[in-house]
Specification:
The chain has 110 residues and is of the alpha+beta class. It has a four-stranded antiparallel β-sheet with strand order 1-3-4-2, covered by helices on one side. A hairpin with a 6-residue loop joins β3 and β4. The longest helix has 16 residues. It is elongated and about 45 Å long.
C-alpha cells in the first residue's frame, strides 16, 4: 500500500498504533503472537476512493486518517496510504486482526 511512487515519496502514509510503515508487517505478526493467535489472516485491506478532482492529495489523506481513527482508534494497528498515481486519489487501509475484537473490515465477527 505504501509504494513510494504511488504515495508521492511516502508523503501520504500514516500509521496508527505502529512504530512505522517499514515495520508494520512485523508488528502485525508480533501482536498476533502476543494474543496467541498466530494462524489465520495476517491483515485486512480496505480502500476509499474519491472522484477525479473531488479532493487534492492532502485532503484525501486527511479524510482517510480521520476515518481510520474513527473506525479503529487506539484499538487496532493500521497503515493509511493515499495513492496519487491514478486519475483519482484513493486511500488504502491495512489493519491487523486482533483476537477478541471486531475488525470493521472483517466479514465475520471475531
Amino acid at each position: 500500500a505504501a509504494d513510494e511512487m504511488k504515495t508521492e515519496k511516502r508523503a501520504y502514509v500514516t500509521c496508527l498504533n505502529l512504530h512505522s510503515e517499514e515495520t508494520a508487517a512485523q508488528e502485525f505478526m508480533e501482536t498476533k503472537r502476543l494474543m496467541h493467535n498466530e494462524g489465520g489472516r495476517s491483515c485486512y485491506h480496505g480502500y476509499q476512493s474519491f472522484k477525479a478532482d473531488e479532493v487534492d492529495a492532502s485532503t484525501a489523506h486527511s479524510i482517510g486518517v480521520a476515518l481510520a481513527q474513527e473506525l479503529w482508534g487506539d484499538r487496532f494497528q493500521v497503515v493509511i496510504a493515499t495513492h496519487c498515481n491514478t486519475g483519482h486519489y484513493h486511500n488504502h487501509f491495512v489493519s491487523a486482526p486482533i483476537r477478541g475484537r471486531v475488525n470493521p473490515l472483517s466479514k465475520r465477527q471475531v
